[in-house]
Amino acid sequence: MSDEYKVAILGAGIGGLGMAARLRMEGETSFVILEKADAIGGTWRENTYPGAACDVQSHLYWYAFDDEQPNWSRLYGQQPEIRANIDSFVERHGLAEHIRLDAEVSRATWDDAGGAWVIETVSGEQIRAELFIGAWGQLNRPSFKGIPGRESFRGEAFHSAQWRHDVDLTGKRVAVVGNGASAVQIVPEIAEQVASLTVFQRSANYHVPRMDRPYDPEELRTFSDPARLRESREAFYAEHESWVGAMQLESNPVLDEFYRIARELLDTQVPDPVLREKLWPDYPLGCKRVLVADTYYPALMRDDVELVTDRIAEVVPEGIRTQDGTVHEFDVVVFATGFETLSFLGSLEITGRDGRSLRDIWQDGAHAYLGITVNGFPNFFLLYGPNTNLGHNSIILMLECQYDYVLQALRAREAHSAVALDVRADAMQRYNDQLQEQLRSTAFAGGCNSWYKTAEGHITNNWSGSVDDYRQATRQLQVEDYEMLQSATA
Ligand code: NAP
C-alpha cells in the first residue's frame, strides 16, 4: 500500500465508513481508513453486550445516500444486524481495500512546508495525507470514574463495551453498575439467566416506551420498495425532529408531553410507590439522555432483581461496598458506567500550524466550527465532533451533513487552487459564542451531571437545536470563514 493519500480517515466505525463511501461516490480513490482495532464497526463492533441495540428506529439509522438500503428485520436494529449491515456496506462500496486494521494512530502533525498531515501509528508506520478526517467517535473510552478498588475484586468484572462472552452468568450473583442507555438494555436480557441481579443507580433516568417488534412479512415486502422505505424514514425523521422541544429547559407542550409519557410508563410498570420514587429523576427531562426503554422497569420488578441507590464507596474482594458500609457480595460485576467523553482526544496528539496542540486548545473544553473544523488545523475535519451529539434524533443525520460539508471544502480548495483551508479564528469564536448562548436554554444545561458537559457546566458534546438547524448551518460552506492557504508556508 502507498503511504501517501489525498485523504486519511481515522476510524472505521459507521462515521468514518460513511465518509469513505461518499468519497468513493465522488470518484475519489486516494484515501485510507486507519483503524486501531482488528475489525471494522466501531461502536457496533465493541458493544456486543446482551440486548445491544440502537434506540433510533432502524430506518432512520442508515444513510439516505446508500442506494441499497438494508432490509431491516425489526423496528429497532439490534447489534448483530447493524454490524452485518455495516459489513455489507463496506463490501458494496468497495471500501475494504482502503482499510488498514491494527493501525492505531498516536500522532498527527501538520507539515507546514509540505502542506500535508503526517500521521504516525503506534507501530511506527507513517502516512502522509492532504486531508485528515477524525472519525473516532465520542463513546469509546470506557470510564470507571469514582469507582476505586476494581482490581481487588475476586470475581469477574468487565465494562459493558468489553463484554466477556466467556463468562457464563448462569446462576451467578451479578451486579450491574449504572442505569444508562447500555444498562437498561443489559438488565432485562440477563435477569432471567442469573441467580440474582443488583443494579446500582446513582441517578434515575426518564424512560419512554420503545415498543420494539419484528416487521411482519407484509411490512418487509412494503419496505423492500425504496420509495416506501424512504417515506418511512422521512416519517421517523419528522417525528424525532418534533421532539426537539423536549430538549429545552422552559416548559412547552412537547416537553410537557414527554414528562407525561415518562410518568405514565413509570406508573404503569412500577406499582410499588417506594420504588417509583427512587426511579423518578430529580433533574429536568433531557438533561441526560432520555431512555427509549420499556423492558427495564418490568425487569426491576422481578423478585431476584434489586435496585440499590446507596452510593458506591469502593469495590472490595467480595463485591461492592456502599457508603452506608454494606458489602454487597457478587460473582460478577458489570460496569455499565459509560465513557470518558470530554477530552475527545484520548491519547491522540494532534499538532497544527506553528506547533499548536489541539489538546492545549481544548483544555477548557473541546470546541470547533460547526463541530467540524478547528482554527490552526488546516485540512482537518472532524466527524461527530464537539457539539454535534443529539438528544432527540439520529446521529446519522448529523454525519450526512458533515460529509456534504467536507466535500464542499474539498471543492472550495480546488476552486481556489489552495493547498489547504483553515477556519478563521474569529469565525470559530463567533460560532461558539452563539452556540454556547443557545445551549444555555437547553435541557443539557439543567442541573444534572451528564457526559454532555464538563464539571464546570461547559457543554462540549451536544448541538443546541434541531437537525434542520444543523442542516441549514452546514448547507453552504462560507468561504469567507476560511483562510485559503495558497502555499503551505503562506
Ligand atoms: P451512560 O449513559 O454514561 O451511563 C453510565 C451509567 O453509569 C450512569 O447511570 C451513571 O450514573 C453510572 N455511573 C457512572 N459512574 C458511576 C459511579 N461511580 N457510581 C455509580 N454509578 C456510576 O453510559 P452508557 O449507558 O454506556 O451510554 C452512553 C451513551 O451511549 C448513551 O447516552 C447513548 O448516547 C449511547 N448508547 C446508545 C445506545 C443506543 O441504543 N443507541 C445504547 C447504549 C448506549 P449517573 O447517571 O449518576 O452519572
Summarize the model shown.
This protein is an alpha/beta fold and 490 residues long. The protein has helices at residues 14-25, 43-46, 79-92, 183-191, 217-223, 226-241, 253-269, 273-279, 296-300, 358-361, 395-415, 425-439, 467-475; strands at 4-10, 31-34, 99-100, 105-111, 116-121, 126-134, 156-159, 173-177, 196-200, 207-208, 291-292, 305-308, 312-316, 319-322, 327-329, 332-335, 349-351, 380-382, 420-423, 482-485.
What are its keywords?
490 residues, alpha/beta, FAD/NAD(P)-binding domain, 8-stranded mixed beta sheet, 5-stranded parallel beta sheet, binds NADP nicotinamide-adenine-dinucleotide phosphate
Q: What layout of secondary structure does this protein have?
A:
Elements: E1 4-10, H1 14-25, E2 31-34, H2 43-46, H3 79-92, E3 99-100, E4 105-111, E5 116-121, E6 126-134, E7 156-159, E8 173-177, H4 183-191, E9 196-200, E10 207-208, H5 217-223, H6 226-241, H7 253-269, H8 273-279, E11 291-292, H9 296-300, E12 305-308, E13 312-316, E14 319-322, E15 327-329, E16 332-335, E17 349-351, H10 358-361, E18 380-382, H11 395-415, E19 420-423, H12 425-439, H13 467-475, E20 482-485
Parallel strand pairs: 1-2, 1-6, 2-3, 4-17, 6-18, 7-16, 8-9, 8-16, 9-12, 10-11
Antiparallel strand pairs: 4-5, 5-6, 13-14, 14-15, 19-20
Helix pairs in contact: 1-11, 11-13
The site of NADP nicotinamide-adenine-dinucleotide phosphate has 27 residues, from helix 4.
